[in-house]
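Researcher: Structure prediction, please.
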Amino acid sequence: MQASETKLQEIIEGTKQYVIPLFQRSYSWEKSHWELLWEDIIELYYSDNLYPHFMGSIVTMQTESLPEGVTKFLLIDGQQRLTTIFILLAVLRDKATSLDSLQLAAEINDRFLVNAYSKESDYFKLNPTQVDRKSFYNIVKRESNIDKNINNINDCYLFFEKKIKQRKDLEIQKIKNIICNSLIVVRILLGKDDNPYLVFESLNAKGKPLTQADLIRNYFFMQINGDEQDLIYRQYWLPMQRLLGENLTDFIRHYLTKNGVIINQNEIYFYLKNKVNRAQTLSYLKDLFRFSKYYAIILNPNLEENLLIRKYLYRLKRLDIKTVYPFILNCYHGWKTNFINEEELINIFKIIENYLLRRFICNVQTRGLNRIFATLYSQIRKEINLSSRTFLQQLKLSLQNQNYPQDDDFKTRLMEVKLYGGNRSEKAKLILESLEESFEHKEKVSFDNLTIEHIMPQTLSDWWKNYLGEDSDITYNLLIHSLGNLTLTAYNSELSNDTFINKQKALKESHLELNKYFTTVNYWQREDIEKRARLLVEKCLKIWSYFGDKSQPVLIKSNVTGTIPKILRIFGEEYSVKSWRDVLETTLNILADSEPEKFKEIMEQFPRFLAWDEKDLRCNRQLKNGAFVEVQLSSKDIYSFCQKAMETADLSSEDWIVETIDLS
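Model: Predicted structure follows.
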């Protein structure tokens, strides 16, 4: 058995063929696997420093072949990732062909997909199992419309085809180079005496594969003298491993990122192997150990003895954006080494919370945050050495230029954004708790036993449908999870779907200032929800006040009343529109085409706006996929629904922009 680190190009280039044995399962990778691979490739695409990206292992065994034939290998392990790579290369070839880059298309085809001068089954670099063979051959030969056959092979092709279509800025040549030269595998070549079936079984047993942290540990301790290994292991590595457990690999990646190195999780081992030599190993381990204690506190703020710092660390943790961790590591270290004082550290955390929360509310894409926070600390230190600005002043100045939403954006979106469900609920609870604290109680309020309560309930009874009136379904679909309809209570299960009259009685008895509002409210319909939202939003503007230059450009045009749409930009493409109904129809047609699974989810969440039967809607247009959309809506409701549809599809505000003409 021979093992070596190898570029993917060396695996797939040359006159050879990989044959998947019958004991292997058919191709089973799905969207979640393709997403991870695509995200890694895109990260490498925009990286300033192309470090090797470890994909895993490829286990092969050479088989007997005729002297004039291709060299054949049984593909014992790694068929899922290798099949995916071949399909992605086919997509790149076809895209290059459509762009008239015929030389590039021919190179991809003849060097990496086929053995150009071989015949019949020897023609293909990969020979899948019988179940997948026809679909795979059709993709490589471009002989069939892949839409006719629904299976994972064809779905994989369509997935990558769609991703490349959505990103017009991507260069096919550069993606090809990344796949060939930056993707690394460990190639394990079995000898003729090895049993491939037993090897496959052992590789796919229940034992956990080696993590990047495991590889790093093994490499580090190979650099340390044998008589010192045990002591150093017990003194540094073992405590660090016990402290962080499964978070150890993430910590090492964030530790590297704090120094401005953008690095993927699968690249950590290669980076450290090239960076740390034998003489540096012990000092590197000591520094890792020191920062691991900081990282443990970031993950579990209860470990922090300072109560105020603990509070704001916990608030940042609840925002659940780990790309900020490298910057927090640096700031925490700055506090521990007296570069930053306690008050400054707390204010730093407040600024970061403000920045992240505003971006979340305004649905600003998170892509790029890792780059911002990787270099932010070093940039600030450099700038304050060249100017008279303080750390806090420079922090605000740096962040205001990084898609930081202004008050108009924040205010408009906070009125209607979905604040409940999935990872949004914790952020909603943080907002509601902050609102309650803003009343400045003399006695501390405990939020431990409080949960989020929907005043208009999540399931509408007949009482509520009658109470809300003719447009109850529109009110429900647009405002059910909005700020105006949410509060905190310890009696969530008791209130449940009760009438507003009974809920009002319970809320009047609450000790929370948030709920004293309901002592003077006699109705709870759309205008009442929106009125409360406006009051709460004004408080939020004071809690998370804008710290940037107000001359900065507005990110999102949210106030659409009294406007006519002119251009819709979605996924970077422009569409001419003449009315808000055109905006609605075009948006949904594109989502249905590009994100069919997410479109189904949108239909389930918003039955008042979308249906398969036109009788379920008042006034409708039919979409290209056969569904019907309600069009008897105000411009404000159309805009709000489109925003919610984009959020449901996990798309950002930058993916959907409407240019309008102001009639006033």
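Model: The radius of gyration is 29 Å.
Researcher: Thanks, that helps.
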